[in-house]
Write a structure and sequence with these properties.
The structure is a single chain. The chain is of the alpha/beta class. Helix content is about 40%, strand content about 15%. The longest helix is centred in the middle third of the chain and has 24 residues, at about 100-120.
Length: about 250
């Protein structure tokens, strides 16, 4: 919510919001507007100027984020000073209300529920993508959104990291690593990384060593997170990654 002044929403039908003014939106993406982006940007700029005039504002500085260059150009042509809103918006998002904290906890609970179901579903013949689908289904069935990837790999595919799920069948003795990348209920993100061991036999000495490395890194770095600590401080004080895991310089 703004500190002062009304909220005007320009959107399509069916988009409801606690706005003071609601008006039809302009088709300013190619998906909606096709080849008419320049004209639609001009109409959108006219809407902005009209709104500023209606509220009696002489301020011609407008902050915008992530838009087509045609919109920026149309605003400049109407005498509007355009500034980048990303820093402003992201700074505001960093401050969470009590309701937002509850939404984050809900999203994390949905993710943890999906992770538990994944672990319980590992068995003979289960593929990486089938295991990933359980997390996706759990998210959707609990009012969640989508996943920005399907980062799950097993066995020999787990290293190097950043590989997406495939039809590979998970085998006994495999490590299964994944990253939820989950947009949960009400659009709140929950990004959990977790590694399972699949099989009845005892993990190998190397697997236990890797687990210990991961455990020590997480718990060491978690102790460093506190109010006022900068990212530079965290980088300086973080758990020292063994040389074997560092990229050659």
């Amino acid at each position: 919510m703004p500190v002062d002044g009304p909220i005007a929403l320009h959107a399509g039908l069916g988009n409801e919001c606690s706005a003071d003014v609601s008006r039809p939106g302009r088709p300013i993406s190619f998906f909606e507007g096709g080849g008419e982006l320049t004209e639609n940007a001009r109409l959108f700029a006219d809407d902005i100027v009209q709104f500023l005039n209606e509220i009696g504002s002489n301020n011609r500085r407008v902050a915008i984020e992530y838009v087509n260059p045609s919109i920026t150009l149309a605003l400049l042509q109407r005498g509007i000073e355009v500034i980048d809103a990303v820093d402003i918006v992201e700074g505001a998002r960093a401050i969470k209300s009590a309701d937002e904290v509850e939404c984050i906890r809900w999203a994390c609970a949905v993710a943890e529920h999906g992770i538990a179901r994944m672990q319980a579903s590992m068995g003979p013949g289960v593929t990486e993508v089938q295991l990933w689908g359980i997390l996706n289904y759990t998210n959707l069935s609990n009012m969640g959104g989508w996943h920005e990837g399907r980062m799950l790999a097993s066995g020999p595919r787990i290293n190097p990291w950043l590989q997406e799920a495939t039809q590979r069948v998970i085998e006994p003795g495999d490590l299964v690593g994944f990253d939820t990348d989950m947009v949960g209920p009400f659009g709140y993100f929950c990004d959990i990384s977790r590694t399972f061991y699949y099989g009845k036999d005892r993990p190998t000495a190397r697997q236990r060593q890797l687990y210990r490395y991961a455990y020590d890194e997480l718990h060491t770095n978690m102790e460093l997170v506190r109010p006022g600590v900068t990212m530079k401080d965290l980088q300086t004080l973080a758990w020292p990654v063994p040389e074997e895991f560092r990229e050659p310089s």
